[in-house]
């Protein structure tokens, strides 16, 4: 797999010389006039091979599909066709003279190249983390273009107006030595693994722990595994999955609650001064969004693919931050991104088992607040807001299977 760390090094781009022509002034004197070079046509399919010891034959074939978006800006999709048929959306693409730069934030990578005089070659390099490798692209034709593998067929989706519930569900205590868990969806089956009931409530109702009031102490200490199948054909959406867990909590845990409005300290997620740096996803807008955390020594990554920012807010408040997160960006699309940050000890503890960072490592990313702005073009601002608080009136340990 390609490395997840990026270290952008700008170097070696060759600028196109500006031609000079001679003309006559009204007085008949010779004068020099600068004539701008013609605009380069970059749209099309480009392909090249990147050295990779993990790829077949030691090479990874990359395909860049560059086109013009509404308003004239360039956009690009990048395919690693020997790895995954799903394209990565470029976060930014610029062409100045013959100098091309394409950033893919989700891969933490940058391609820099120089367009050849014939407009059919780009000589360049691929930079990712501390690694820089040569990557030369050629413009593909219908005859020379590499075949891009077809995406696997999407699973049958549950009807959008369905309100599913578990037709059968098994709940049992988690093993004491089980690794940290989460949830999963596969077809009609929904699972949660090694999670507390408090975690299930936060997932099902999109709330932070500070928005849950009352309930016994075992909500945060006892962990359970659940396996269940919906009563409705098709794979549920994330919201439908949450509805299933809500009904499970009511039926098997006897959860009863009421809501109250309360002003609480929160983090408001807003767009930073220079605008967002996240790429609009090229994925199916109806597909299940992908969002998850990864771990390195002393570093946490949050990766999103084809996901909305409401999912980012939920992921942050459920796993990282000590306050609810309110999405105030106004961005309603689906995006691809990767966030790398150095957690503080409290945040690190939420991911038990993460190896501490080497204090001498100068390449560690910043804390989540600085990383959020630098890498995503968004900000987390501490403020207060009126939010819903769940007041638990009743809850019991799960009924027998």
Brief descriptors of the model:
401 residues, mainly beta, Lipocalin, 9-stranded antiparallel β-sheet, 42% strand, globular, disordered N terminus
Question: What does this protein look like?
Answer:
The protein is mostly beta strands. The protein folds into 3 domains: 20-139, Lipocalin (Beta Barrel), CATH 2.40.128.120; 166-259 and 389-394, no CATH class; 263-388, no CATH class. 12% of the residues lie in helices and 42% in strands. The protein has helices spanning 197-205, 238-252, 309-319, 345-349, 368-376; strands at 20-24, 30-34, 44-51, 59-68, 74-80, 84-89, 92-96, 99-104, 109-115, 121-128, 131-139, 166-173, 182-186, 189-196, 212-213, 223-230, 256-271, 279-280, 290-296, 299-307, 325-327, 335-341, 378-394. A 9-stranded antiparallel β-sheet has the order 6-5-4-3-11-10-9-8-7, with no helix packed on it. A hairpin with a 5-residue loop joins strand 9 (109-115) and strand 10 (121-128). The two termini are 42 Å apart.
In short:
The chain has 401 residues and is mainly beta. The chain has five helices and 23 strands.
Kindly report how far apart the N and C termini lie.
42 Å
What string, H for helix and E for strand, traces the elements in order? EEEEEEEEEEEEEEHEEHEEEEHEEHHE
**Total beta-strand segments:** 23
- Poorly predicted ranges: 1-37
Strand content: 35-45%
Number of H- or I-type helical stretches: 5
SSE class: mainly beta
Question: What is the share of helical residues?
Answer: 10-25%
State the domain count. Answer: 3
Please describe the biggest sheet, giving its number of strands, its sense, and whether it closes into a barrel: 9 strands, antiparallel
**What is the typical, i.e. mean, pLDDT?**
84
Shape: globular
């Amino acid at each position: 797999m390609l490395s997840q760390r990026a270290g952008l090094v700008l170097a070696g781009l060759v600028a196109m010389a500006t031609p000079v022509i001679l003309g006559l002034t009204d007085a008949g004197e010779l004068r020099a006039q600068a004539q701008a070079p013609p605009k380069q046509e970059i749209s099309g399919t480009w392909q090249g091979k990147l050295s990779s010891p993990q790829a077949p034959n030691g090479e990874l074939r990359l395909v860049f599909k560059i086109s013009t978006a509404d308003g004239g800006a360039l956009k690009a999709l990048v395919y690693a066709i020997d790895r995954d048929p799903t394209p990565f959306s470029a976060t930014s693409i610029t062409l100045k003279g013959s100098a091309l730069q394409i950033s893919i934030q989700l891969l933490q990578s940058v391609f820099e190249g120089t367009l050849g005089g014939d407009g059919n070659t780009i000589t360049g390099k691929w930079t990712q983390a501390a690694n820089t490798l040569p990557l030369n692209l050629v413009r593909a034709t219908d005859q020379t273009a590499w075949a891009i593998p077809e995406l696997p067929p999407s699973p049958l989706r549950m009807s959008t107006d369905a309100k599913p519930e578990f037709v059968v569900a098994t709940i049992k205590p988690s093993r004491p030595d089980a690794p940290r868990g989460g949830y999963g969806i596969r077809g009609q089956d929904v699972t949660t693994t090694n999670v507390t009931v408090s975690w299930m409530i936060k997932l099902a109702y999109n709330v932070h722990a500070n928005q849950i009031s009352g309930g016994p102490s075992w909500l945060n200490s006892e962990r359970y595994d659940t396996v269940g199948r919906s009563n409705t054909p098709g794979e549920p959406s994330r919201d439908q999955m949450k509805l299933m867990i809500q009904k499970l909590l009511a039926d098997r845990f006897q959860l009863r609650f009421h809501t109250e409005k309360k002003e609480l300290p929160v983090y408001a997620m807003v767009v930073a001064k220079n605008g967002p740096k996240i790429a609009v996803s090229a994925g199916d807008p109806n597909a299940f969004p992908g969002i998850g955390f990864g771990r390195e020594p002393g570093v946490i990554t949050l990766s999103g693919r084809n996901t909305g920012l409401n999912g980012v807010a939920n992921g942050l408040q459920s796993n990282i931050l000590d306050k609810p997160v309110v999405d105030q960006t106004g961005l309603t699309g689906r995006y691809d991104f990767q966030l790398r940050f150095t957690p503080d000890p409290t945040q690190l503890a939420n991911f038990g088992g993460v190896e501490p960072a080497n204090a001498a490592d100068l390449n560690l990313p910043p804390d989540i607040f600085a990383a959020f702005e630098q890498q995503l073009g968004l900000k987390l601002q501490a403020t207060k807001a009126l939010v819903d608080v769940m007041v638990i009136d009743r809850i019991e340990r799960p009924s027998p299977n």
